[in-house]
Amino acid sequence: MAELKQNQKYWGDVSEGEVLPRVTMHVPFAKVILNAAATNDYFPGHHDPEYARAQGQRNIYLNTMAIEGFIDRVATDWAGPGTFIRKRQMQMRASIYAGDTMYGEGVVTKRYQDAAGRNLVDITISIATDEGPRVPAALTLELPRH
Amino acid sequence: MATVAQAPFPLTFGTYTDALKLVGQAGAKTVAEFSVTWEAIKVYCALVEDANPSYWDENYARRQWGGIVAPPGLLLSWCMALEWHPTKERKHYIMALRVPLPGDTLINVATSTEFDRHLYLGDRVSVQDRLVQISEEKDTRLGIGHFLTTEAEFLNQDGARVAVQTNQLFRYRTHEA
Questions:
Q1: What's the whole-model pTM score?
Q2: Which of A99, B45, B122, B162, by CA, is between 20 and 30 Å from B71?
Q3: Does B144 contact A at CB distance below 8 Å?
Q4: What's the pLDDT score for residue B84?
Q5: A35 interfaces chain B, CB cutoff of 8 Å
Q6: Hey, which CATH number is domain A12-27+64-142, 3.20.20.70, 3.40.50.450, 2.40.10.120, 3.10.129.10?
Q7: Using CA atoms, how far apart are residues B92 and B69, in angstroms rounded to an integer?
Q8: Helices (H), chain B
Q9: How far apart are CA A4 and CA A6, in angstroms?
């Protein structure tokens, strides 16, 4: 197996305003079905197009856990695998449908230590499709220190 | 109003007044059917295309965390109800699904999750949630209904807190078809 990237950001090396690399992922129909299976979520809006349309949706759509996982990936692809996600807030303002391509972009908003002495970084992440922004998110990451 | 033909879960129907009586109530504590497995972690990472070695590389994960850990986004999945069980009734832990309201469908809207510790292979999660708030009737792009806010606490098998999550979902009926 090829070696997986272990590049780690250290707290002291991060600056406010730093931009995270953009992450792109195509979402074919089969991935939305994989989503249902991977998260044990058989709510019909995630696998039955007829049900999704009756709900007012265009097609089957990704669930909360898939979007959370993509958000976390945007964060840790940038920060590195030794990052602990302390907090994640996300709002699904519009759905991500089978056939869409999703994009994740982010920026560092704050670097600080909390009362417990943890080395923290706040970031905002925006998940979009070709139709525009879908899911805004805000995360607090705990990073290692040199 | 248009009716969504297939009930996603056995929803409870009633009025907003009925629903408000449940605010502040806690659901039953549920122990997950699914223990944390590397197989489930790999399937989820394949879904979101996450190459983080904390999930794939035993040597790295042992050095960094003491073992392979579960991606935080998998938190809810461990506690999902099985589609069929030989002795148990199919019941979802999410209390919002059992609140009596007119809406015949739902969609999740927002989550806010604070994590205390990782989940490791073999861990068994338990969860209990509480109904925090129900909005007045709102007319949205998708339909007419109510926003339900719940707060869930997730523990590992030793009773240590893994995470606390506030969740908001929209229980609604679509506009006239």
A1: 0.95
A2: A99
A3: no
A4: 85
A5: yes
A6: 3.10.129.10
A7: 25
A8: 16-20, 38-48, 53-56, 58-65
A9: 6
Mutation for testing the B interface, residue in A24, A26, A39 having most B CBs under 10 Å: A39
Task: Compute the Cα dihedral for A19, A146, B52, A122 and give only its sign.
Answer: negative
Angle between helices A64-79 and A29-38 (to 10 degrees): 90
Provide the chain A residues 105-144 that lie in CB contact (below 8 A) with chain B.
none
Give the pLDDT score at B92. Answer: 78
Distances (CA, A) of A116 to A109, A143, B114, B119: 20, 14, 15, 22
CA angle B61, A21, A90 (to 5 degrees): 75
**Optimal mutation site among A8, A25, A55, interface B, most CBs of chain B within 10 A:** A55
Per-residue pLDDT of chain B (177 residues; tens, 9 = 90+): 344 545 556 788 999 999 999 999 999 899 999 999 999 999 999 999 999 999 999 999 999 999 999 999 999 999 998 888 898 877 777 888 889 999 999 999 999 999 999 999 999 999 999 999 999 999 999 999 999 999 999 999 999 999 999 999 999 999 964
pLDDT the model gives residue B10: 75
CA distance A63 to chain B (A): 8
Domains and CATH numbers, chain B: 16-34+81-174 (3.10.129.10)
Domain ranges of chain A: 12-27+64-142
Distance from CA of B171 to the nearest CA of A (A): 11
Binary contact (A65, B60; C-beta < 8 A): no
Partner A, chain B 93-132, Cβ-Cβ below 8 Å:
105, 107-115, 118
Chain B, nearest residue to A34 by Cα:
B47
